[in-house]
From TrEMBL:
<keyword id="KW-0472">Membrane</keyword>
<feature type="transmembrane region" description="Helical">
    <location>
        <begin position="113"/>
        <end position="133"/>
    </location>
</feature>
<feature type="transmembrane region" description="Helical">
    <location>
        <begin position="85"/>
        <end position="107"/>
    </location>
</feature>
<keyword id="KW-0812">Transmembrane</keyword>
<keyword id="KW-1133">Transmembrane helix</keyword>
<feature type="transmembrane region" description="Helical">
    <location>
        <begin position="44"/>
        <end position="64"/>
    </location>
</feature>
<protein>
    <submittedName>
        <fullName>Uncharacterized protein</fullName>
    </submittedName>
</protein>
């Protein structure tokens, strides 16, 4: 990350702030008129909320390249990150406000069964986000994008501008 450009840090910052706002508003960690928590937010949920937003922002920063470079990405790499973000969302959300949990377990089941699992979901989500970031950073170091200019052909292939 030492070699990151302003563009990469900017994307990471915007993604982190956007994630924090979206997750904070939807889980009512941030007071708002649309969503209301029925159970107070535990102290650890604030740490998980901010940490997951920062980690996701950094992961987004790994997908941004300096101008003039082409970076391919495999959609299969996005799945673990999406899963980790969803786990963080469930971890910091109000157990009785989550319609999926209430439908599956009922309101008393949400408090009895789901609420005690939320810290486990939180740790699991942060570990998965950390592993995803580590993997993205390692892959960026082991497979750097070449600095040569490339052109994209109509057929979708990529070749060098020297005709090779």
């Amino acid at each position: 990350m030492r070699a990151w450009t302003v563009r990469q840090w900017g994307a990471a910052g915007v993604a982190a702030i956007g994630t924090a706002l979206l997750m904070g508003m939807a889980t009512a960690i941030i007071d708002n008129p649309v969503f209301v928590r029925m159970i107070p937010t535990p102290w650890w949920a604030y740490l998980v909320w901010i940490t997951s937003a920062v980690l996701l922002g950094l992961i987004v920063g790994t997908y941004v390249t300096p101008r003039g470079q082409v970076k391919r990405s495999d959609s299969a790499q996005h799945r673990p990150t999406l899963g980790a973000v969803l786990l963080a969302w469930f971890a910091v959300g109000c157990p009785t406000c989550n319609m999926l949990v209430v439908l599956a377990l009922g309101a008393s089941g949400a408090v009895t069964w789901f609420q005690p699992l939320q810290p486990v979901l939180a740790v699991l989500s942060l570990v998965l986000l950390g592993l995803a970031l580590r993997s993205r950073l390692r892959n960026a170091e082991s497979c750097p994008v070449p600095n040569s200019s490339v052109s994209v052909l109509d057929s979708g292939g990529v070749r060098g501008t020297d005709g090779a």
